[in-house]
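Extended Data, panel c. Modelled sequence:
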Amino acid sequence: MRSAALLMLLALAACNGSTATPTPPKPEAFPAAARPVAGIVSSRWSDEDSRDSAGEGNEVMARAGVKPGMTVADIGAGEGYYTIRLAARVGAKGRVLAQDIVPSVRNALAERVNRERLDNVSVKLGTADNPGLPENSFDRVFLVHMYHEIQSPFAFLWNLRPSTRAGGRVIVVDANRPTNQHGTPPALLKCEFAAVGYRQVDFQVMPSAGGYLAAFEPAGPRPDPAAIKPCKG
C-alpha cells in the first residue's frame, strides 16, 4: 500500500493528467523585483512547539479553508512544520506536495516524511524562479514566511499560476515589515501578485503567525513577461 501511494504521489508531482509549461520563459525575460530580496537564513521560522502553542498551524489552515481530501502544496517547506500538519488535515484521501530549493533541506524533509510514514506526502526539489508544479492540480498552495526570499518573484508567480484548480488559492503568510527585514508589506505583496494576474480575495491579520494571511486567485489572462511592471517596495 505504501509503495502504491508513493507512486501516486510521484505521478502527481510529474503530471497529474497534465504537464507544466514545457518551455517556460527564462528568468531574465521577467523584470527584477524593485525592492530587496531577503537571503535564506534558516530552514525554520520558529520552533514547532512555540508555533503550536500560539495555535499557528491550525489557525492558518482553518482560515485558508483546508479540508479533508484536498490537494495542497507547501512551497519553501523547510523542516516541514506545515507539511506534517497539512498531511493530517487533508487526510488519507488528500495529497501534499512539499518543496524546497535547498537540496539538503529537501533531503532532510524527505527523511522526516518517510520516518513518520506520511503516505499522502511527496517531497520535491524546486528552483528559485519556477516551482515546477503540475497544472490544474492544487486546491491550495502555501507560501509561508518565505515570499520575501524568492529571488525572481515575477518569474516564480508567473510559473506558479497554472498550478491551481478552479477555485484554488495561493496562501501567503508573512510579516508586515520590509523585505530586507524578512517580511513583505501587504500593499507590495498585493501589487506584485496583481502584476502577474492574481486578485487578492482575502486578507487577515494573524498575530499567531507573526503577521498576516493573504489569499490570491488567478484572474484574467497571464501577462506576457515583458509587460509585467515591478512594484516599488
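The longest strand covers residues 164-174. This feature is highlighted in the accompanying rendering.
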